[in-house]
Amino acid sequence: MRARLVHSDELTRYDFGEAHPMGPGRVRMAIELARQLGVLDELDVIPAPEPDDELVRLVHTDAYIDAVKSETPQPQFGLGTQDNPVVPGMHETAARVCAATTEAARTVWEGETNRAANMSGGLHHAMPALTSGFCVYNDCAVAIKWLQQQGVRRIAYLDIDAHHGDGVQSIFYDDPDVLTISLHESPIHLFPGTGFATEVGGRGALGSAVNVALPPGLDNLGWLRAFDAIVPPVLAEFRPEILISQHGCDAHADDPLTDLDLSIDGQRASYLMVADVAQKYCNDKWVVTGGGGYALDTVVPRAWAHLLAVLAGVPIPLDTPTPQAWRELVGPGAPATMGDGGDIDFEPVSWGYNPSSRLDQAIIATRRAAFPEFGLDPDF
C-alpha cells in the first residue's frame, strides 16, 4: 500500500515568530523540497482533520487547555516565557497538529496504509499541564492515547531527536503497555535534563522506558552503533503492534541548539534503520512525525525529504542534486546535493566494546539498566 502524508497549510502555522528557533517555514521548506524531488508523487497526501478539543483532553488538563486558549502569559503553565511565547491562534494550530498525528495513526491502525506521517508533529516535550521546549500539546502522546482507546495493547514510541522525549516518557512512565525509547544528547549537557539510562519505567512498568544518553560530539558512526546496540533487541522482545517515531533532525552538526555531529548521510541511514525495525518487529505499522531541527534552510528540508522518501519506499540517493528552484528559495548557501559526504559504515557492538569510549560507556549503561527487564543479557 502507498504510504500517506497528513498535511495541510494550516499545520505550517505552528511557529513562534521570525526570531524564535521554531521559526516559520521549516516544515513548508521540507514539503516543498520533497515535492520538487517527486517524493510527494509516491505518497497519498491527505488533509489534516479539524482541531478536536476532545482529542487534546486525552492528555491535557482542562485548566491548561483554557490557559492556552486565553492567549495570555501564564507562567504556571509555561506560557509567555522566552522559549514559549504566547502567539495568536496557538490552541487551534497545536490542536490541529494533534488531530493530524492521530489521523496518521488511525489510517495505519485501521489498515488503510502501513505507513503514515505528520511532519508538523513530534512535539514531545509538552506535559499534561505545561508548555515546554517549544511544545504546546503533545501530539504523539495524544495519538498513543487514542490508539489505546481503540484497543491497541502494545505501542512503541521511538524518539531520535537530539533532546530527550521527556513528555511522552513522563505521560506513559507507569504504563507497561507503552514502550518509550529515546536516543538523545546526555541530559548532563542538554535540555530538558532528563533521559538518564537509569530511567527505566515506574512501579509496575519497569522496562517501559529505555534511554540512551549520548556524549556530545558524537558522529554518524557512533550514533548508528548506539541505535543498533539498543533498539532492535528491545523491540524484538517487546513486539509492539504499532510504532510511532519522532524524527527531530537537530542531531545534525550544523544545528545551533545541540552538540551532536551527525550529517545528512547519518540521518538518512537512521531513517532506513527505523523503517527496518518497524517492518521486522512492529507488524510493519509505522507512524512518523517530525520534531526538532533548527538549521531551518540547510538541514531540516533535506533530512525530512529523505524521511518522506524512506516512508514512501523510494529512498533518495545522497548524491542527488537539490533542485535549482529549491536552491533559489533558500538563497546563498543552499546545499548543492542531498548528502554531506559523511561516513555511515559503523562497527556493531557485537564486534566488541571499548571500555574507554564514552559512547560505549553510554551503551553499556543503557543495556545494564534496561535489558534485564526484557530478559536480555546486557553484555552480549
From TrEMBL:
The keyword Secreted does not apply. Residues 20-310 form the Histone deacetylase domain. Pathway: Ketone degradation; acetoin degradation. InterPro entries: AcuC (IPR003085), HDACs (IPR000286), His_deacetylse_dom (IPR023801), His_deacetylse_dom_sf (IPR037138), Ureohydrolase_dom_sf (IPR023696). Signal peptide: none annotated. The keyword Oxidoreductase does not apply. Keywords: Acetoin catabolism. Pfam families: Hist_deacetyl (PF00850). Belongs to the histone deacetylase family. PANTHER family: HISTONE DEACETYLASE HDAC1, HISTONE DEACETYLASE HDAC1-RELATED. This is Acetoin utilization protein AcuC. It comes from Ammonicoccus fulvus. The lineage of its organism: Bacteria, Bacillati, Actinomycetota, Actinomycetes, Propionibacteriales.
